[in-house]
Write a structure and sequence with these properties.
Elements lengths: L9 E8 L6 H14 L3 E6 L2 E2 L10 H12 L5 E3 L9 E2 L1 H11 L3 E8 L12 H7 L1 E6 L5 H15 L3 E5 L7 H9 L10 H10 L6
Parallel strand pairs: 1-2, 1-6, 2-4, 3-5, 6-7, 7-8
Length: 210
Amino acid sequence: MEKKEKKNHKKVGILGGTFNPIHLGHLRLAEKAMRAASLDQVLFIPSGISYMKNQQKIVPAKDRMAMVQLAIQGNPHFRVSAIEIEKKGNSYSHETIRELQRQQKDTKFFFLTGADTVFSMENWNNPAYIFRSVTILAAYRTGVSLEQLQEKIEQLKKLYQADIRLIAADHIDISSSQIRKAISEGTSVRELLPRTVERYIKDHHFYENG
């Protein structure tokens, strides 16, 4: 059963990630989610210390934050939050959601993610709270079995009363690892990144050694 959307409540999408670096795929996902769910705003949240990531190859948080700020500059509907970067210890999505709800009581939150993530969300810390608290907007693209995905969504709906909605996301097939690899090999990333982010990476010599 879908969560009721209270009238006059602000609708905000949460797009979290390492953003190592942020790229055009992230921005296109945010734009598609805004249109699909009539969002008022998308909040980009660079991760702090993630228990699911190897921290060794991640550039400093302040630089990832700066790149996000450059990428969303000029879009009045996009904002960036340091809520996870400023947190001590591991970052957990359910804690971030809980804090955002505390800060913005009259806001309905939507959690933006890739459809492939739907298969693993049950393994996250406190998945029940996440499914109970937000609507999941999952970007579906070719390569993920739609039949298996729909089966998983039905399972999560039964177990957690989860509200999971699919967004068509063709042409968003870009990954940060692909960009890092291209930079280390000296290949152009002009079609993958905002120019401002590309310049920031070059100026700081990020990802040049893989």
